[in-house]
Amino acid sequence: MHPVMSKNGFTSAVIPIPHFFGTRQVPEGFQTSIQLGEVTTGPPSFPFIANLKQIHSTRVVIFDSPVKTGVIPEGEGDALVTNQPQLLLVVRTADCVPVLLIDHNTRVVGAIHAGWRGAVGGIVPKTIQACVEHFGSDVAHMHVAIGPSIGPCCYEVDAQVIEPLKIGYPDWLGVLQETTAEKGMLDLKKLIWHQSLASGIPEQQVDRMEHCTYCRDDLFFSYRREGQVNGTMMTGVMLPGDKGRN
Ligand SMILES: [Zn+2]
Prior knowledge:
- This protein is 18% helix and 28% strand.
- By secondary structure, the protein is α+β, with helices and mostly antiparallel strands.
């Protein structure tokens, strides 16, 4: 699937509600704190916003009651799930993988920040499971979009990553191209794609954007290319308001 470029970034054909995978450009109407890029205010089209203090964990934070404040004070974690309309879920990345998911039937959405720790730890399957257990989602109806991140062209990892990958993911050969005895090129997006399918999501409902944040200096920040955090890309998804209310 070819992602479509909109004014707020890229969109995926498998997510049929308001969403974006951001670029260097902060999406229109949003303001973020300078250091880490937390969203401080959003435009009227996104009245309620939730973001987290991201900690490279596999912690899923669930919002299941009506939101009353504009920007929810952040908790710690790396995945957000909600069934609440008009609440924009935001994650921020600068090489890590942003992932969005939706179950249209039960009206549940999720946003995930997955670096190697989160991906190898299974944060995406865990978030899918949270939708099933907490909201009664059926994986047959879920859609997953895997956004721009550092690609296997540029993501060389060492034993610190390879060892837990081999232990936690028996099919590691399909996502790691070994270069030397102790190093290899890791395809994080493909790992998450495999995990999504293994969770039971039909293949045609899983989208994977192949843009590499390291290669595409013109579009994305890259922590690895720049050697520091110069900025983060914002990725968000929101269930629209109930009929007649929005
Ligand atoms: Zn690359």
